[in-house]
Amino acid sequence: MEMDRMDENDWKYHEEGNKSLVVCHVQHCRVLRLLKYPAEDSENPPQTAEQAFRQIQNIVDFTSNVMSRLLGDKFVHSGEVVRLPLEFVRQLSIKIQHQRPAWRCDKVMDIYSGCALCLPNLTTPTQYQPTATPPICIEIKPKWGFLPSSKHVSRDIKTRVCRYCMHQHYKVANGKWKRRSLYCPLDLFSGNRQRMHFAIRHLIEEPQNNFKVFKGGQCIYSSKEGSEGSPDMNALLHHLRPYFLRGNNRVNGHMTAKAVLNDFIQVLVNALLSPAGGDGGPLTHRAPEGRSFCEASLFSNERVRHGSQGLPSSSVLSRILQTQMLDALDIEGLYPLYCRVEQHLQDFPKDRTRLQIDGPYDQNFLENVQKSSMEDDGSVEYAAAKVHQYRIAMTAKDCSIMAALVPSVKEEDDDEGLSSQKHLRDFRPQAFSSSVSILDLDPKPLDSIPRQLRLDQKIVACYLRTGGALPMGSLPLLPNFIAAAEREDRTLLFQPA
């Protein structure tokens, strides 16, 4: 990018999270990620331009030197820090303000530092040949994929019901979401195709902030926080149908809603299980730590008694899960070690640098984390290493996966010469190539640990208080949708000529 020729009209609003806002270039496959501040700080930024630069550089260093090593560099894009003209940033902020969701406007875009993180736009992959149908990109926040088995866990329910399922009850009770998602991360991370299909089906049903679909760089399916209605799944089916011309349940050249969803989920599962996010590979089994089923999941474990269980060791889900499991103590076991570190820093504030509390996130940082002793020797070094392991695990628990599904050019060419009879006999989903990336890999701040403990206590207390029950009207609506969609299919199929 030529910084002296930046034009706000070349960029458009893409999305935003709690701490940053993303804009994408209208022609090139690049995005800029800019920091956000509380609205009350809009006139007096909370940090200098150099501090903002350092904050973003820390994200790059942590991503490239820590998370990339643990998750695999084939999945991770570190990006680079760029300095932008301030006038460009200010005009860009004005241009996109009306496009931002109202519930995100309690924070404003940083218009003072001129610093941003430049990354590839993963919703518009460039490494593919142009086809009649552009790539479909799916963003998933998989969340926590295991049950804690730490001796420090004080409530047995935490070893039987996963954090995500309990958190759903807390969010519905507090009005953040109107309906509970029936998605369970343990099903997705199981490696069993039936359970994974079940999990993704429920992500589609109630996506919340955890599932989005992009086509040609545009978000075509997502959910808005606090929304009363469900996302438009008929529109999603309309977009997906051309991608699955070969599939099951075709009648007179028509494909049912159920078949479209099944084929879409099957292709997505293939991408998530692929060792390279590409064309698949042998399944390897892992020995699960603790229980591999969540009691809150609606999937019956009787259905997979004879099914395969486990993830390919180099698949994206396996790498994320192993990194999440660096949290071996649970927040309840970690918090006393955090207090040990905090007390030491109060007594010896200069040791903050030696213990790399705020970085630098270099090779030395990762080595200290990886060679940490299993036994607590009472030292602040042991405590700091465990705190760092927990922070890394929390990043992996909150990351996102972007899977790009690209229709095979050869299949599209072959289709042109096939008869309708050949189409009806062929029950394979259309061939896709895929690429998988991991994003949202920022380091979690040290001072977030007390908040994590309080949140953990609130979530567990809410679940125990309600007994896992939810108010009327808080269950998802997909079964009704599928029934309606299939009725519509039958109407289309059997209308008189």
Automatic annotation (TrEMBL):
GO BP, sorted A to Z: epithelial cilium movement involved in determination of left/right asymmetry; inositol phosphate biosynthetic process; melanosome transport
Keyword match Ligase: no
Main location: cytoplasm
EC number: 2.7.1.158
Class of this enzyme: transferase
Reaction(s) catalysed (UniProt annotation): 1D-myo-inositol 1,3,4,5,6-pentakisphosphate + ATP = 1D-myo-inositol hexakisphosphate + ADP + H(+)
Domain notes: The EXKPK motif is conserved in inositol-pentakisphosphate 2-kinases of both family 1 and 2.
Function (record text): Phosphorylates Ins(1,3,4,5,6)P5 at position 2 to form Ins(1,2,3,4,5,6)P6 (InsP6 or phytate).
Name by which UniProt lists this protein: Inositol-pentakisphosphate 2-kinase
Species this protein is from: Fundulus heteroclitus
Lineage of the organism: Eukaryota, Metazoa, Chordata, Craniata, Vertebrata
